[in-house]
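Subject: Interface between my chains keeps coming out wrong

I've been trying for a while to get a sensible model of this assembly. When I model each chain on its own everything looks fine, but I need the whole thing in one frame so I can look at the contacts. Pasting all components below, labels as-is. Any help appreciated, I'm running out of ideas.
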Amino acid sequence: MSDCHTAPPRVSRRPATGGADARLIALAGQPNMGKSTLFNILTGLNQHVGNWPGKTIERREGDFAYKGHPYRMVDLPGTYSLTANSPEEVIAREFILRENPSLVVAIVSAANLERSLYLVSELVCLPVPLVVALNMMDVADQEGISVSAKILESALGVPVVPMTATRATGVNELMEAIEQVLAGKCPVVPCRPEVRADHRLVMEEITRQIDSHVPLPYPPEWVALKLLEGDSEIAHTMQTALPSCNWEAVQAILLQHDDALLAVASGRYEWIGQILQVAVERPKMGQISLTERLDRWAAHPIWGLLILAGILGLVFWITFKIGAPVQNWLSVEVVARLATLARLALAGTPAWLSGLVANGLLGGVGAVITFLPIMVIFFATFAFLEDVGYMARAAYVMDNLMHLMGLHGKSFLPLFLGFGCNVPSIMGTRVVDSRPGRLLTILIAPLVPCTARLAVVAFLAPAFFGSNALYVSWGLVLLSMFMLVLSGTLLSKIIFKGQRSAFIMEMPLYHLPNARTIGLLVWQRSMSFTKKAGTKILAMALVIWALSVLPGGELNTSYLAQFGKLIEPIGKLMGMDWRLTVALIASFPAKENAIAALGVLFGSSPQGGLTQMLTASYSTASALSFLVVTMLFIPCMATVAVIRQETGSWRWTLLNIVMMLTLSFIAGISVYHLAVLLRLS
Amino acid sequence: MVTRTSQIPLAELVAGEQATILSFQNMREVAGRLTSLGFTPSVRVMMMQNQGRGPLLVNVRGTHVALGRREAQKIIVQRMSE
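Reply #2:
Try treating it as a single job with all components included. I did that and got this:
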């Protein structure tokens, strides 16, 4: 039973004054333990989101004050252990060992204590004071599990504070415990797990070999443990730190005991088992939980796919029902009016200045702002599905299909996000745990048609195909999906040679969504989207604008048009004249620019007469080819920039551009000539 | 019920069956991830969903874990009889 009262936390979210003397606290915990909920309660909007140095892993830290003391809290990546299975674990332990936080808060779940104490069994071995936040007391209550925080506290030897973060109860008690420990009023003498009995001598032997050579700040015993666990990072460090004879001795021991990892892990679970025996009372197993009942449908190979399809359909429906009208309103009522106002205000100035502001600047800003409503809807539905625990089920049911491409279920989530916009999709590939898998997902992600491309199709398909527009649009989406599976399959066979990462994923318990968590997530993702896309789209929009007015101020004679005419022979292969070619190039800063460019090239606004002019000017074959190429053409500028950022390499970025160019050209040429053969022209 | 003591891959359990983990085969690179999620020798697991193909769902130490079929082929278990 939770004995927490429900008084609002006394934590003040004023930014801590004098950052230097703020007490540094690290928040550690496994995934799905409510870590972000607790972090959000304490720091609110006073958060800085960035990346860990040299890594594409999000680093969140925040400031708050409690009883006049300023605190700085760093949210460590959610990890199941501290062994180098992925970069997250290395980040978490290096932070604790090198940045010397005053204290680490380890968050565990009362409803799933056995597994969540595994990370604690590692944390107690590090030279830093620890406080355990025993979260999800309400869930444990519902399942009839009773955990005694007092007994747990004496068994662990560190303070344990029961809490329910989703209701913000127990937060003051947690801060109180932290104050006590930092004031030295509460001695922390952790009880530590031991290696399973049959490996203790081995462990002592390794410790002897490495003892005086372990580089700071690592504790020698801990290093010995990590070596036994087969930790590649620590093995590498020690290989350079140890004299070669010692290293060879250590290697010989490790080779003889290649099952040592299991002995270490078993030792930790034995330690946990002993603690649970005294601290937890659980009912007889056998009752079927809500999660199990829901998963009979949501994780079913057929029903699960239908449910997923239904959810995706709903997301699209909401996006186009709410997002598209808002987007339209913003672009007509806000951006277009601002442009008119700017022209009026700059009436007396040189033409190039008002052009720069009205077309270049506002055009670029407008592209970002008008896409924000759609992105917010996508981010919100994603955050909601993530928070209730559904996303793991989507990954699970999509695993089979993703295997075709040498990927597994987790890659599906970022790809889906790509229907909104490819930029967050590529950032979202961070959930894929292996580097080859992640690179492959990034390479095929731009083939997911984003809302901007769908907007171009939605505008042009009716102009070209009249009543058949809907079928053509569906055909284009299906073609993109087919290309995605095809290139994924080929890339995994050719470049990644069937390297497959293991599919091991926790299916968290379903739980009620928390508005604060979702709200903050949407806020942060939208801000980061606006910043990234904003700066890059703006810069490039200005460049394209300049190319479209220089040297004479007329698009028809501009550098852009000259370039379009220069490469027209290539366009001709796909049945496109220089204007369609220029429209394609203009879609690089932002895909929907293709429409605006055609408008300028035909000297008419998209609202009036453009459709009729297009219908009159192009054959069905050319139109079809142009739409196909638009769907598959090189990703927009913001996407290219984010691919560079997330892969950390121009080579992968260029490979993606070349791949998309090749795909779109081949598809464009084939579609055009096929259509001509079938006399569609 | 007849007690079957044969060692089989985890992937061969049908939904509802329980088993004890014996060992991992050739899984050096993912053994660390498995142990941190609760898979260790002598722990009891329960198969929650196994359709014969595709991924499967296992309950280990109260956590529901999705495993690829390849991974589940390499975890050797012993069936537990009722």
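Reply #3:
Confirming on my end. Chain B is about 15% helix and 40% strand.
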